[in-house]
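Tutorial handout. Part one gives the primary structure; part two gives the three-dimensional structure as tokens.
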Amino acid sequence: MIRHLRMPGLVALLLLSVGALADPDSSVGALKTPQDARALADSVMGLVLANKIDAAFAKLKPYWPVPGAEIDSLALKSISARDSAAARYGPTIGWVFIREEKVSDFLIRDTYVEKREHHALRWLFYFYKPNSSWLVNSVTWDDNIQDLFL
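Part two.
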């Protein structure tokens, strides 16, 4: 499933879920622990800070069981939306890990804030453990910082 969320004056592609585009024949990397998943998300946020969005999404590829072309498309659309947002929100000046939430022993959501000069962006990383390893299930970013208070 691909979902669009509205940013004021912008439409950004933000979510790609495993369920709709899973490629059962792909070879997916192994994230053995929730700490491995968190380290991956931290690494991606470091690349976001450096404005290396292609590299950030490429870093997710080995752990995200969807066709690589779909991830590449998501990266390109994110780059375009972020370029548009830069004029309004200013450059990225940092990122902060906010919280980890778990549903039983098989779902994790890690929430981050990308700090920009004039506004913050919320990043959500969803990880799913169908068996013994964690997979990237979806990644979302938007400007809905009010949802951080829910």
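Part three, for discussion. Confidence is low (pLDDT under 50) at residues 1-27. The radius of gyration is 15 Å.
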